[in-house]
Design brief:
Layout lengths: L10 E6 L5 E6 L3 E6 L4 E7 L4 E7 L5 E7 L12 E6 L16 E3 L9 E6 L6 E6 L4 E5 L4 E6 L6 E7 L5 E8 L2 E7 L7 E2 L7 E6 L6 E5 L3 E5 L8 E4 L5 E6 L5 E6 L4 E5 L4 E6 L17
Antiparallel strand pairs: 1-2, 2-3, 3-4, 5-6, 6-7, 7-8, 9-10, 10-11, 11-12, 13-14, 14-15, 15-16, 17-18, 18-19, 19-20, 21-22, 22-23, 23-24
Length: 299
C-alpha cells in the first residue's frame, strides 16, 4: 500500500480527477493537497484560512476543484464559517499557488446560522454548477463561476442536508437527516417538485453513490446493510448485509462491476455488484476510514 503523507491530522476527503491525472485530498488541518499521478508527487499544497477542509471534488473537465470548509465550534467571526471555494487546478498567473485568501470563498449556505459545508458535487453536464450540502435544510446548486444560486429546493423536513451526489445524467440525490450519520434519500432532477424519495421504510442511510451510468443508486444503511435501488422504479431496494457494519463512504469502480465500501470497523470491502457479495476485504489497521475513491483507471 502506498501511503501519501503530509496532512497534519485526519484526511477528510479524497477525489480523483475525471482525467485521471490528479488526486486531491482535504484535511482537518485546513489544507488541500494536489498529487500528480502516477508518481503521486505533491504539486500544490493549498493553505486555506480555515481550520478544517471538509470536502473536495473535481469538475467534470478536471480544471476546477470545489472545496468546502468549516471552523471551530463557537468561532466568533461568522465571515469565516461555512464557505465554499471554486479553485482552478492550475494556479492563476501572478498569484501564490499555495495560498487561498478569504476572497476566494463565499457563503454557500445560511451564514447567519454559522453552518458548515459537508459535501460538494460538481454537475457532470453543466459547467461550473456545484451542488452543496451543509448544516442548513436547503439544497442549493451554485453557479460557482458567478457565485449565484442557480437552483434551490427547500424540503418540508427541516433536517440538515448532509450529502449530495450527481448521477452521470444529472440526477441529484441528497441525504437529509437529524445528524451527519443517518437520514433519508431524495432524488431531484432540478425541475420536478417535490423531490422523489427512496422507499426504505424505517431504514436510515449514511452514505451513497450512483453507478457510473447512473442507472443504480447504492446506499450504505446505518443498520449495516447495503441497498441497491433503480431511480424511478416502484420496486423495493435490494438489500444485503455488510457484517452489520455501517458504511462511512462508498465509491463505484468505472466499469460498474465493483464498489469500494469503507466501514466503521476500519475495514474496506470490495463488493462484487453482479454476485452481490464481498469479493475481498482489506484491514490495514490504520483506524477509521473516512473516505474512499476510485480512479478512472480503476485504482
Amino acid at each position: 500500500m502506498l501511503a501519501l503523507e503530509g496532512h497534519a491530522g485526519q484526511v477528510t476527503a479524497v477525489a480523483f480527477s475525471p482525467c485521471g491525472r490528479w488526486l486531491a485530498s482535504a484535511g482537518w488541518d485546513g489544507a488541500i493537497r494536489l498529487w500528480e499521478r502516477p508518481q503521486y508527487q505533491v504539486r500544490r499544497v493549498i493553505r486555506t484560512p480555515y481550520d478544517h477542509a471538509v470536502t473536495a471534488a473535481f469538475s467534470a473537465d478536471s480544471t476546477h476543484l470545489a472545496a468546502g470548509f468549516r471552523n471551530r465550534d463557537g468561532w466568533p467571526h461568522p465571515v469565516n464559517v461555512g464557505n465554499l471555494a471554486w479553485l482552478p487546478v492550475a494556479p492563476r498567473p501572478a498569484t501564490n499557488p499555495e495560498a487561498m485568501p478569504y476572497l476566494d470563498t463565499w457563503f454557500a449556505l445560511d451564514g447567519a446560522r454559522r453552518t458548515a459545508v459537508r459535501r460538494v458535487a460538481p454537475h457532470p453536464l453543466v459547467r461550473d454548477h456545484v451542488a452543496v450540502a451543509g448544516d442548513d435544510h436547503i439544497v442549493r446548486v451554485w453557479d460557482a463561476a458567478n457565485r449565484v444560486v442557480a437552483k434551490s429546493y427547500a424540503p418540508r423536513l427541516c433536517w440538515s442536508v448532509t450529502n449530495v451526489r450527481y448521477s452521470a445524467t444529472g440526477l441529484l440525490a441528497w441525504l437529509s437527516g437529524p445528524d451527519s450519520r443517518s437520514g433519508q434519500v431524495f432524488l431531484w432532477d432540478g425541475v420536478k417538485r417535490p423531490a422523489e424519495s427512496v422507499p426504505l421504510d424505517e431504514e436510515n442511510v449514511g452514505s451513497m453513490v450512483f453507478s457510473p451510468d447512473g442507472a443504480k443508486l447504492y446506499l450504505g444503511l446505518t443498520s449495516g446493510k447495503l441497498a441497491e435501488w433503480t431511480p424511478g422504479s416502484s420496486r423495493r431496494p435490494r438489500l444485503a448485509s455488510l457484517a452489520d457494519v455501517p458504511a462511512t463512504d462508498i465509491a463505484a469502480a468505472p466499469d460498474g462491476r465493483s464498489l469500494l465500501i469503507a466501514g466503521e470497523d476500519g475495514i474496506v470491502r470490495l463488493w462484487d455488484v453482479e454476485a452481490w457479495r464481498v469479493r475481498d476485504s482489506f484491514n490495514w489497521r490504520i483506524g477509521t476510514i473516512a473516505a474512499v475513491a476510485v480512479a478512472p483507471d480503476g485504482l
